[in-house]
Amino acid sequence: MLTPQGHAFILRLLNGDPPAKAYVSAFGLKPGESASDDTVKDRARRLYSDAEVQAEYNRLRAPAVKAAQSKYHFDLDVAMEKSARAHDLAELLADPANMLKAIELQAKLKKLLVSVSEHRGSPLDEAATSDLLLLLEELKARRAVEVIDVSAIQEASVLDVEPVDAKVRGGTGDRDLGSESPPGDQAWKSLI
User: Fold this and answer.
1) Residues whose CB falls within 8 Å of the CB of residue 8, separated by 6 or more in sequence, listed in order
2) Is residue 183 classed as helix, strand or coil in its secondary structure?
3) Most buried of 28, 53, 70, 121, CB within 10 angstroms?
4) Domain ranges of the chain
């Protein structure tokens, strides 16, 4: 049989208090005066793990859990039901625009209708595998050009350093040093 303090402890837990605070409140203890914090925590833990306390706690908590679950329960059936009610109301009010919106919502819920904004294709979606492989090789080739050999830089003097860019800037304009396209460049242009 639960003591009045045990019942008060459970009620404090149901109100959201942590076990130690619920214990102090239920037994009328003043924090720090009657027992150390560790002692209070240990006693609260033992009381909370008592089978009779757990049974009463779960019994009192069950209706609240069920109410919360029903309040926040929302699935396809509930959405379809609410959409049907919205359609019926729009039909009753002779509002074709909202009737159509309710029908669209039902179709989306049943995955019969896909919005254009949900799938934004890319040029790569329709590319052939061979084209994609050529693009990959082109990317690898470009990255290889960008890699700088650290040992070569350490050995070279400042005057020996040459530009890494494909273009040299200066004078009246830019001039392109490379006239050949990197491998796979034609494949990339065919996708554009």
Assistant:
1) 25, 26
2) coil
3) 53
4) 4-72, 76-115, 123-191
